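Objective 1.3, modelling of assemblies. Example input:
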Amino acid sequence: MLHSYPANAKSALVVGSVAFDNIKTPTTETGTILGGSACYGSIASSYFAPTQIVGVVGNDFGEEYVERLRKHSIDLTGLQRDESGKTFFWAGVYGENFATRETIDTQLNVFEHFDPTLPSSYQETPYVMLGNIHPSLQHRVLDQMTNHSFIAADTMNLWIDISRDDLMSLLPRLDLFVLNDDEAPMLTGEENPILAGKKILTMGPKSVLIKKGPHGALLFHPDGYFTFPAYPVTNLQDPTGAGDSFLGALMGYLASIDKTDFANLKKAVVYGTVTASITVEAFSCDSLETASRETIEKRFADLLAYVSLS
Amino acid sequence: MLHSYPANAKSALVVGSVAFDNIKTPTTETGTILGGSACYGSIASSYFAPTQIVGVVGNDFGEEYVERLRKHSIDLTGLQRDESGKTFFWAGVYGENFATRETIDTQLNVFEHFDPTLPSSYQETPYVMLGNIHPSLQHRVLDQMTNHSFIAADTMNLWIDISRDDLMSLLPRLDLFVLNDDEAPMLTGEENPILAGKKILTMGPKSVLIKKGPHGALLFHPDGYFTFPAYPVTNLQDPTGAGDSFLGALMGYLASIDKTDFANLKKAVVYGTVTASITVEAFSCDSLETASRETIEKRFADLLAYVSLS
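Predicted structure (tokens):
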């Protein structure tokens, strides 16, 4: 077994896309590679706690890809296989210095009619990560949960743009709402990220995390404000999946200790930060998959030292 | 007396421009206001240690402006008055969300022939801040120093562009070299700020500070790497002078304790961070001038709490 978990660790459920990506950076163009928020999120979570996945793959999703998830002890009961079509495909191009990202091609394929039905064995899973999918699907997952401790959801500019009502009605159902610093102004009309975070708190979620990529993250919580810098990455290859890895690790850590108070949520944010820093050092889930709890703990300790005043 | 200093505090010397600015932001256009790196730097430093200023003003620099410096117990022996012309003038416009800054007008006036001659009483001042002026003038100041403990210099894109040789020969004379995150790639050809900082360390300065504005700062030192987020400003009025206030407070703090090891330099960076956060909440030196050591200490403690995991 690659992973061993504390005896009292709870499980984390990760819902999102399972995808094939084609990614072009200033230096490299990949072929078809494994991607999707559920893949990044579930593998990241698996370093901390037993992890379940809900997603859909198509008839082109070979056993070798399934094996990459199985290897991380991820419960695949909720991974649907739709033989009627291909797996969700996304192609994107990053500009100079990764300052911009442009979508070149999106083929929804089997994801178009994806219904995230939870296996009965998942319905009481206490820690739930709703990866970046349509907010109506995020609602649909929560409607099936009979018991939970902590629900976190990610989103993207597209849903803020075209599905604002669904997203707004989701927010009060969340313990943690996660978004990027360019999405927070879209949602709130407030350019200052501190004011934006505080404003989102009034929209219903119990806490809000604004991610600033290489500039760290801001956590808004009823018990206070927390901010932490990013891990100093010097070998950035591909930022795709950084946010999903961040949230997956954050949720896996909370599940592993089964505590969700402010102090532990802060630690979870730092675990998310350093796990994301591993993901971006290679394409696809490659470096995330070959990490270990020890490499994550090493970066956690290093990052704490980098901000230490002593 | 506004300030009282520890009995063993050393003095800090601040060299730079004394200016009149006219600043336009998305919401406001100022009239002629007090500015310049030496003003921001010396007032910031004055909260921590006895501070001396070297700069030049013209025949339009009224006593009311001198009084604003004198009020902070700043030693004005080195403030030259050139009756032959007007004070250096700069007009700039900030774009939406302060994402851009454009120079509209620069009138060097008496600054054109400024020779930073040090009064003999300054020549052994141990802590020296070389504000953002031409690197040949920064050299000229150091040439007159007979004894010093810690030299820090700021710069700007213009000098990297047109006076690279002077700047490069200055670097080995510095204990701390300070620049912005958009200037570091210009100097090094390296876009990654971590790699850029490490590269600048090889160019001669004993340590390097890269400032990222609202995203905090990165310190590169032979004893290690340090990073700290910015203070969460919600009332940004004008970023002008933030960097000068940062470095002035940093130097004033070091002078006040007369220690320059890595641990104390890290504390000095946090003092710089929070002092800069005060400056940007008003135009000119207005909020910096009306601050107090207590308000600075309050932000210092708050910022430490914001990054605390406990």
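The interface with chain B takes residues 97, 191-195, 212, 214-216, 218, 224-229, 232-234, 236, 263, 266-267, 270, 304-310 of chain A (CB under 8 Å).
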